[in-house]
Amino acid sequence: MEQGEFSLSEREFARIKARVYAVAGISLSEAKRTLVVSRLSKIVRALQLPSFDAYVDYLERNGSAQDGQDFVNALTTNLTRFYREDHHFEHLRSYVATLMAERPRDNRLRIWSAGCSTGQEPYTIGMDLLSAFPELKRWDFKILATDIDTAVLAKAAGGVYPDSELNGLSAERARPFERGGGTIRIPAAVRDLVSFKPLNLIGPWPMKGPFDAIFCRNVAIYFDKPTQGEMFGRFAKMLAPEGFLYIGHSENLGSGGEGFRLVGKTIYQSREKLNKRAA
Fold first, then answer.
1. Which entry of 39, 84, 93, 271 is annotated as an active-site residue?
2. Same domain, yes or no: 68 and 97
3. Domain extent for 33
4. Which one of the listed residues 70, 128, 147, 149 is annotated catalytic?
5. Cα gap 264→260, rounded to integer Å
6. In this predicted model, what pLDDT tens digit does every residue of 21-75 receive, in sequence order?
7. Contacting residues for 268 by C-beta, under 8 A, at least 6 apart
8. What is the pLDDT of residues 161-208, one digit of tens each?
């Protein structure tokens, strides 16, 4: 055990699992025990508390909203990169090209990146579409990017990353980034498209939609099956009739799939459009 870490009893682990499930819908498995000890020990030590039990007591009785947010932030995992699961962006380009041809006078385009982490996903969407369709600069084009972790949202909003993020990208895809001092910066035209907002996916959704596309990739894996089904069902109601939902490579819609039809690898289309065509 590293210096500064606390021992975690079965009772304490059960209490932590119950709390993070209740407030964020995150289902922690036994495999996450080491992660829990490593990440929460720092907070327990900073609060000068003697144990994890005392920490959960503190959260329940005396903890501020920020204390609760720090608890959630510590237990979320944020692994992402630019152009992750490239086939989704290829499909999105094709879809947007169709929308632009079908909407000569309605130039509204809305995309939601749900579980955006440190911002690589929404920024990829913005850069890729502006590069393919420069005329989108004249559209009412906006990207909503949400995450429950306020720490990663703050980093995402800055739009600055180490230049190692360019590793593996083609010269064409690396070109839009502004470079200097070992960092890369998202161009202003792309940053202006994206609004970063804190959002708990198991809580209320204040946005109205509809969205032409929703990206929610490698987020559902942290939820149990009932929570996944409920979330995907809510996404169906937020999509435009012709909209698409993009999910992670290891995910499926489960009980939330009634509003969708699989049209590609982890790509689903709203059934509302399909039902209208059939009618």
1. 39
2. no
3. 10-75
4. 147
5. 12
6. 999 999 998 989 999 999 999 999 999 999 999 999 999 998 899 999 999 999 9
7. 244, 245, 246, 247, 253, 257, 260, 261, 262
8. 999 999 989 999 999 999 999 999 999 999 999 999 999 999 999 998
Residues 222 and 228 sit within 8 Å (Cβ to Cβ): no
Active site residue 39: yes
Measured between alpha carbons, how far is 95 from 51 in angstroms, rounded to an integer? 53
Q: Which residues of 171-200 are buried (b: 16+ CB within 10 A; e: fewer)?
A: eebbebbeeeeeebebeeebbebbebeebe
Active site residue 61: no
In terms of domains, do 91 and 221 share one? yes
Record the pTM. 0.88
Whether 65 and 93 map to the same domain: the answer is no
198: Cβ–Cβ under 8 A, 6 or more apart, which residues? 146, 147, 148, 150, 153
Sign of CA dihedral 7, 10, 11, 14: positive
Same domain, residue pair 51 and 155: no
Gyration radius of the chain over CA positions = 20
First-to-last CA distance in the chain? 64
Q: Which residues of 130-147 are buried (b: 16+ CB within 10 A; e: fewer)?
A: beebeebeebebbbbbbb
- Give a yes or no: residue 19 inside a domain: yes
Beta bridge partners of 144: 112, 195
Do 203 and 90 share a structural domain?
yes
Query: Is residue 23 a part of any domain in this protein?
Result: yes
> What's the one-letter identity of residue 261?
R
Looking at 75, 102, 128, the residue that finishes a domain is: 75
Number of structural domains the chain divides into? 2
